Amino acid sequence: MPKTGRPPNLHRLPRLGRNLVVLGSALLFLGGGLFAVATPLPTIEYARPGASGGNPGGSPQTVLSVNLTDSAAFRPNALSAVAGSSVHLLLHNLGRYAHSFTLSSIANFTLNRSWTPAQLDAFFARNASLNASLPPQSFDNLTLSVAPSWAGGSFEFASLVPYQFQAGMFGFLNVTAGGGGQSVSVSDQTAVAALSFVPDSIVVNATSFPVTVEVQVSNLGTGGHTWTLVAQPDVNLTPAGFAGYFQAHPPALRLNVPSTPGVDVTGNVTISARGSYQFLCEISGHFAAGMVGYLYVGVPAPQGIQAASTELVAGWALAGAGGILGIGVALSVAAAYVGRWPPTPKEPRHH
Ligand SMILES: [Cu+2]
Questions:
Q1: What is the pLDDT of residue 310?
Q2: For residue 14, what pLDDT is reported?
Q3: For residue 258, how far is its CA from the centre of ligand 1 (angstroms)?
Q4: 224 has pLDDT over 80
Q5: CATH H-level superfamily of 61-176
Q6: pLDDT of residue 340
Q7: Residue 264's pLDDT is what?
Q8: pTM of the model
Q9: How far is the CA of 282 from the centre of ligand 1 (A)?
Q10: Ligand 1 centroid to 143 CA: how many Å?
Q11: Bond from prior residue into 72 cis (ω within 30 degrees of 0)
Q12: Same fold yes or no, 14-53+180-337 and 61-176
């Protein structure tokens, strides 16, 4: 397994996020008059260029950060990649036990949850495209070539350490067709006192597909949640039906939001078609209590739904208002920011 010895940058993102939020709060204060009209949403968020936006002309490159935990889980456990691209996988074992990140080479094949460790080993002995073993408290940094032929495939990954898979330590790499395209950042929050997402309606003004959506979720409350995005457009799951649906159709993105207040988790997802994409919290009872929302990608929000939108952000940036952080959610089309954003902290390319 290639080891680069490169110092991990995994913890820079939340700090950057906080810096931007502080900056945004200051700018919001200055520009409050303007935003008071346009933004009824009370929360403050930020926008930044998406992961693959700064690489025009080059081959698309994505960095996926995955934490391996003793719970036992991958965080996030739904990853997205574009066929024909190169993905840098940054793996971080946060736990006190060894874990592995072992990727199936069989598209759209869900591992049998009742397999024994020996059966799982036997499967991956024949069908692994990548296998990284991580000792406790370790990093690994490796490159995965996502073949063009993988387009449309969902590839399961699991930990081969006995009984971790059986305890839930698995996830999916979803591969979409290539073509580069736009990159957009989305921020969402869990509400402080209620079981809800703020905002629960987000418009992504995608004009070409696929679009890479980088999602950051901040936990402002004290409970644990997930931010789970349905892979298919225009699907409306119910609290009673979503678990069965996800068995058959793995989520496009599943972010596990730990209970730590203020913690940020990020992930990215590549969306190939316009439509409304439902997101929800999978923790028992939370969806029914209101933890559900929609990402409107390349389509307007339905009438009567007030959605945070990329359009607002881009408009303000063009007007030089500088206070793009003062809305409930802020999104950016990367290209729109070149040269307009106030000087940003130095940011590693891989988010
Ligand atoms: Cu929840």
A1: 47
A2: 45
A3: 10
A4: yes
A5: Cupredoxins -  blue copper proteins (2.60.40.420)
A6: 31
A7: 83
A8: 0.47
A9: 6
A10: 33
A11: yes
A12: yes
- d(C-alpha 65, C-alpha 281), whole Å: 21
Structure tokens at 113: 């949850």
The architecture CATH gives domain 14-53+180-337: Sandwich (2.60)
* N-to-C CA span, the chain: 22
Distance of CA 278 from the midpoint of ligand 1 (Å): 15
Q: What is the DSSP string of 240-297?
A: TTHHHHHHHS--SEEEEE-SSTT-EEEEEEEE-S-EEEEEE--STTHHHHT-EEEEEE
Q: How far is CA 124 from CA 111, 119, 141, 158, 207, in A?
A: 10, 9, 21, 10, 40
45: how many CB neighbours lie within 10 A of its CB? Answer: 27
Q: CA-to-CA distance for 67 and 25, rounded, in angstroms?
A: 30
Q: Report how far ligand 1's centroid is from the alpha carbon of 195 (Å).
A: 6
What pLDDT digit, counting tens, does each position of 283-331 carry?
Answer: 999 999 999 999 999 998 888 887 776 433 322 222 222 222 222 223 3
**Is residue 12 scored above 50 in pLDDT?**
no
Distance 200 CA to ligand 1 centre (A): 13
Distance 289 CA to ligand 1 centre (A): 9
Could you state, in order of their start, the residue ranges of all structural domains in the chain?
Answer: 14-53+180-337, 61-176
pLDDT at 345: 39
